[in-house]
Amino acid sequence: MMIGQLRVTVRMFLLIAAFALVNSVVLAQDSLNVRALFNWQDASLPASSTWSNTYNEVWGYAADGREYGVIGSTNGTHIIDVTDPTNSYEAVFIEGAATGSQVIHRHFDNYGHYLYMVCDEGPSTLQIADLSFLPDSAPLVYDSNVLFTRAHNCFIDQATAHLYVVGNSNWAAVYSLEDPTDPTLLVNCRYDLAFWNSIGYLHDIYVRNDTAYCNAETRGLFVVDFTDMENPTMIGSLPVYPHQGYNHSGYLMENQPYYAMADETHGKSIKILDVSDMQNLQVTDTVTSGVNPFSIPHNLIYRDNFLFVSYYYDGMYVFNCTDPAHPTLAGFYDTSTEPHADNDYRGCWGVYPFLPSGHILASDMQTGLWVLDGTDAISGTTGTDAVSEREPVLIRPNPVTDRAEVSSAFGGSGFSVMDMFGKERLAGTITTNGSIPQIESLNPGLYLMRIQDHAYFGSVRFIKH
């Protein structure tokens, strides 16, 4: 596609997407084996000055037979009672120390009935809220910048009661939660550990039994044993790997030695790592949504034999990991109406799959909190293979006039075209040379084309002139 044509396409996408967002009540979202139960957003909240993201991280909490979704915004932390998804409501709002358009990142974890909140912008603080009073209130029991002012992420090792905080001036630090309302510093990695200079700033971290998987931006993955807080040691590293980009986040499978890793870089795939031998970390597969060259995996979480992924632009994805070395696509739900674009980061931010009901929480930077039902994806009734080293769906030309084609690799696959209200307008079989039959019969507008056969599912949005 020529640059001028790309600019026109992006501009038209923005205009149409804005219209679609206003009319979100009737807009049908793209999905496979996942359906939406509830969407919460607050139009009065300001958007950030960076990517116009009003919302960020998502978390969940359950107690006394009730379930809650936690979502960060530019103004603070919103706790939504999602026990009955169709009648969900905002139960509590906790104002952040830093608020407004300067805020892009908040992050959460909980230890028992205490919720820990960090922010990576402004004169912020570590905040701790007591959730035992929900749904009536969630009072702050700690709100201070004594330990640190800003942080990008936090992770609590539940087995050892250690709070790991990363992405600030300390690069990484470990705190004791012996008193959950008064954390105390155990290790300042940047200044206490000489070997940490080879690791540097951490963007994210996953920890189990004080074994920490450290996502270190473009420097790769490092594994550090903190069992002896007096003498932490690096026990593994992966500085180079396939589809390498900005190493953003990762998660360890519960009962299998596999670690999933997402690079927050346009077009980069998720890496599946065999971590049974720390001295020889191996990438066993790479998987992706396959939607667009600008697709970006952001955050990911294993639960049981499934990997849940939040994809900017593309939504929430579920992969079946019955074969942990080679995941397959089980389902997805697109929370976003944003067009794919280079050097831009919008759409689905985070995912939380641990509610007792089995409902999945997802946060979208523009559309807020989603409660999703992934029963069909988990049951595997109609799942398909994941895209593994496959080319994404690209339609040419875009905008479309009287003809259009995709790669000949999709020849013989079935396709369907839906309008922006979710109505099917065209269906058939792609020709052997990749041509899409009867595309000229469509009226002008925005469409979504799905391509599916026994081993592939992909989709792409396009404009018909």
CATH architecture call of the largest domain:
7 Propeller
Mean pLDDT: 89
Unreliable spans: 1-28, 382-390
* Major sheet strand order: 1-26-25-24-23
Largest sheet: 5 strands, antiparallel
Tally of DSSP helical segments = 3
Strand content: 35-45%
> How big is the Rg?
22 Å
- Tell me how many strands there are: 33
Write a brief structural summary.
Strand 15 and strand 16 (211-215) form a beta hairpin. The protein contains three helices and 33 strands.
Explain this structure:
- With 465 residues, the protein is mainly beta.
- It folds into two domains: 1-29 and 393-465, Immunoglobulin-like (Sandwich); 33-379, 7 Propeller (Methylamine Dehydrogenase, Chain H).
- Helices cover 6% and strands 42% of the residues.
- The chain has three helices and 33 strands.
- The longest helix has 20 residues, at 3-22.
- The protein is globular and about 70 Å long.
- The model is unreliable at 1-28 and 382-390 (pLDDT under 50).
